[in-house]
Write a structure and sequence with these properties.
single chain; 382 residues; alpha/beta; eight-stranded mixed sheet
């Protein structure tokens, strides 16, 4: 683990000029600490935002229509107003000493140790490029995953691929994959339908050696402190919580750090860049503070982009993308287009219809230009 050095004169990523008064207070962190720190040559934000969506029904709507361009015009407008209301946001400014934030690197050089000679070829057969992410992330705790009878809980597992990967790593592992809905296509591993509010009612305390999630926590709209305390209780003593999520307040993020501009303008044409479907917008300082507050220790962070690039070059050196699994959503584009056109024709509000058409073109542009969020992986011990 490298030592972390904070710059002598770091610049705030959020100039206070023109910001609402309650946000100006956070931009300078009591007038002393900067909003941005340099750690191991990378910039990280001290700021975190959490938008507590009013109800489970609103949250479900957001997950389905992530740019607030769904078929219900009144719901679109109401949630846009709420998203642009700073009084509905919990805004945190970390005062944690920068030297306490541990930044490491994902070691892929030893990833192949202990695997068969065909492991690289097996990776190349994985169904979608995002599957490589699970390989890189789980490599950080691969020694723990190889323990006999290890108990693993995978949160927000969607199609259960991470559960399959754990079982391929260790046949003796006891794996439970959860999500809030059942997958539309046959999953790689059985999915238990349970919300994060029901975890401690579903599983006994100290049940798991490892809890894993990838791109799940940013979707949590309820009290994050309660969720982290529940996860802490589900881990066995010495257990590991490992998770990856986008750093949507990171100053180097080409897209999501426009959030404050969107809130100031409150323009429906800007929501694509900030994803209201992610109520928690954070970076390493905010994550560290929330985990430490419920008892987690030895919290470590790992930037993922370099590791994912290296792993993709190993798996797909020629084509740059993996094969598509039969039955995956990418094979149903005509059906998605048909549903989209039906929704446009059924929209009585012409302005909402125009917004929907705008997002259809803008989302293609964003994905084509690869404007994706900066991602961080963390591990924390009980």
């Amino acid at each position: 683990m490298r030592s972390n050095q904070s710059t002598d004169t770091p610049q705030s990523s959020l100039p206070s000029a023109g910001l609402p008064s309650n946000l100006q207070k956070t931009s300078t962190l009591s007038g002393q600490l900067p909003a941005t720190e340099q750690l191991n040559g990378r910039a990280y934000s001290r700021l975190g935002y959490h938008w507590r969506v009013a109800s489970p029904a609103d949250w479900s709507y957001l997950q389905t229509f992530q740019c607030l361009n769904g078929p219900d015009a009144s719901t679109n407008k109401r949630l846009r107003r709420q998203f642009g209301d700073l009084s509905r946001w919990e805004i945190r400014s970390s005062t944690t000493d920068a030297g306490r934030i541990q930044i490491g690197e994902i070691d892929l050089d030893s990833l192949w140790v202990g695997h068969s000679a065909g492991f690289k070829q097996a990776i190349a057969s994985f169904p979608v490029p995002s599957s490589l992410g699970h390989v890189a992330k789980m490599s950080v705790i691969r020694n723990r995953l190889k323990q006999n009878g290890v108990a693993v809980l995978c949160l927000g597992a969607l199609n259960g691929f991470e559960g399959l990967l754990v079982k391929q790593t260790n046949e003796t592992a006891r794996v439970i994959c959860t999500d809030v809905v059942r997958p539309e296509s046959p999953p790689y591993h059985e999915i238990t339908v349970v919300s994060h509010q029901e975890l401690t009612r579903t599983f006994q305390p100290s049940s798991f050696d490892v809890i894993y999630s990838s791109h799940t926590l940013e979707h949590v709209y309820s009290d994050l402190g309660v969720l982290f305390a529940d996860l802490y209780s589900l881990l066995k003593p010495g257990g590991t919580f490992i998770s990856a999520l986008p750093c949507e307040t990171n100053p180097n993020n080409p897209v999501s750090n426009r959030m404050l501009d969107v809130i100031r303008r409150n323009s429906p044409f800007s929501y694509l860049t900030v994803s209201p479907a992610h109520p928690w917008k954070t970076d390493v300082f905010d994550i560290h503070d929330r985990l430490e507050a419920v008892g987690f220790k030895d919290i470590r962070f790992y930037p993922t982009e370099d590791a994912l690039n290296r792993l993709s070059q190993v798996a797909w050196p020629d084509v740059g993308a993996g094969p598509v699994r039969p039955g995956s959503p990418t094979q149903h584009v005509p059906h998605r287009t048909q549903r989209f056109l039906v929704r446009i024709l059924a929209t009585r509000d012409l302005f909402e219809a125009f917004v929907t058409l705008y997002y259809a073109g803008a989302s293609r542009s964003v994905h084509r230009e690869k404007h994706f969020d900066i991602e961080i992986l963390f591990t924390a011990e009980k």
